[in-house]
UniProtKB/TrEMBL annotation:
Subcellular location: Cytoplasm, Cytoskeleton
Lineage: Eukaryota, Fungi, Dikarya, Ascomycota, Saccharomycotina
A GO molecular function held by the record: actin monomer binding
Source species of the chain: Wickerhamomyces ciferrii (strain ATCC 14091 / BCRC 22168 / CBS 111 / JCM 3599 / NBRC 0793 / NRRL Y-1031 F-60-10) (Yeast)
Protein name: Profilin
Family annotation (Gene3D superfamilies): Dynein light chain 2a, cytoplasmic
Main localization category: cytoplasm
Family per similarity comment: Belongs to the profilin family.
Domain of life, source organism: Eukaryota
Gene Ontology cellular component terms for the protein in this record: cell cortex; cytoskeleton
Keywords recorded for this protein, A-Z: Actin-binding, Cytoplasm, Cytoskeleton
Pfam families listed in its UniProt record: Profilin
């Protein structure tokens, strides 16, 4: 069972991907999630200056999410009733989308718990 499946199997996340921390390698990705190279590059660069997300938003799958929180660990965004987030670990970035009907704290908890697990295991 792959990591992104664990995120989607939660019922709170409908698509997810896990990239290397520098964004140059896809470690896992759900079939229905496709991110452009520039979106990943912008995400990686944004973690170096999280305040940049507040002005530009979080862009995934050609959709822009209004950022509600951004720091060196994670970036959280909303677009209408949907949301997206990315959480960084020692060696990876977990990126997830949640559909309408799921509350942000529910989705955030699922992704953050996996990120905490990876960090505890030096990943």
């Amino acid at each position: 069972m792959s990591w992104e499946y664990n995120l989607v199997a939660s019922g709170k996340i409908d698509k997810a991907a896990i990239y290397s921390r520098d964004g140059d390698n896809i470690l896992a990705q759900s079939d229905n999630f496709s991110l452009a190279d520039q979106e990943i590059k912008s995400l990686v660069a944004g973690f170096e200056d999280p305040s940049s997300f507040l002005s530009s938003g979080l862009r995934l799958e050609d959709q822009t999410y209004r950022v509600t929180k951004a720091d060196d660990r994670g970036v959280y965004g909303k677009n209408g009733a949907e949301g997206a987030l990315a959480v960084r670990t020692n060696q990876s970035i977990l990126i997830a989308h949640y559909p309408a009907g799921v509350q942000a704290p529910e989705a955030n908890t699922v992704v953050e718990k996996l990120a905490d697990f990876l960090i505890m295991n030096n990943y």
